[in-house]
Amino acid sequence: MAALGSKLAQLQSKACEATRLAAKHGCAYHKTLMEKNKHYVVDPPTIQKCQELSKQLFYTRLASLPGRYESFWKELDGAKLLWKNRSNLKVENAGVAALFGIELYAWLCVGEVVGRGFTLTGYHV
């Protein structure tokens, strides 16, 4: 229990240090960031303009769905062709496919843990 208290004190100390660093350099960082990206800022930055841009982004993404849908089916057809000709498949290609599948599964597991609030059992302590 003492080790846990020690770790907590270390964590608290590091959090305080990070807060001080952010307070000291945060304004300068924000100013530099905004200066570097000022060509992306709409003038004047009003609520109405933000809402308009939000709608533009939503409908632009919605308009891109047919192209994405078509690309998905092309990729699927390519995967079906590979599966049909699997006897000609090289070991390297099968290894890459297996690693890709393992990576997808690992991301799924990480997503599940994040969704449960970074707990492994689902119970919060």
TrEMBL record:
Keywords: ATP synthesis, CF(0), Hydrogen ion transport, Ion transport, Membrane, Mitochondrion, Transport. Its main location: mitochondrion. It comes from the Eukaryota. InterPro entries: ATP_synth_F0_gsu_mt (IPR006808). One of its GO terms (cellular component) is proton-transporting ATP synthase complex. It holds the Pfam family ATP-synt_G. GO terms for molecular function: proton transmembrane transporter activity. One of its GO terms (biological process) is proton motive force-driven ATP synthesis. It is found in: Mitochondrion membrane. Coiled coil: none annotated. Belongs to the ATPase g subunit family. This is Uncharacterized protein. It comes from Eleusine coracana subsp. coracana.
